[in-house]
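Continuing from the previous page...

OK, I double-checked the sequence for Suppressor of anucleate metulae protein B against my notes and this is the correct one:
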Amino acid sequence: MTPLPPVQCANCRENTIKQAGCERCGDAPRYGPDDTSVCYCGFGCQESHRRSHKDHCDFLYGRSRLLRAALILKRALLAYRETVYDLDLTDMQEQEGALYLHHNERDAFVHCPRGPFPRSRLQGYRSYHMGAALTFKQGATSMALLSPLARMLFEGNIGPRSESTEIS
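Thanks. Re-ran it with the corrected sequence; updated structure tokens here:
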């Protein structure tokens, strides 16, 4: 195992090989140069730096909660659409970076049978191709299905169970 390169402590600016960072925002996704993670040479420096780090930490922690919610919502929509699929999809083709879905046309006034996604007919495609086919023309459906779940996620009503909510 190769040793980690020295980093600068966010508080005292000394080089350190200890890379103890902020546990709250350490796993947040980074999108820009200002989104660097903080490292400290010890607990004393972390305590001293807490007040100046708090606002940035809150921002990054919010970003990680948003990413978690987005991943949960995406999985929920894809799971629903894999079970309740309403296109008569016959083939998919990727050409020059675009995905083309081929399906049999249907009359808009005729009830469309719903069933499982035809995964067996579409072997050899990547998971993001399947995701694109599953979410094709699903804007209104996704809003209707996922809005209540999103509300619960952002209000904090979904997560690890606390001892007070356990059923005996």
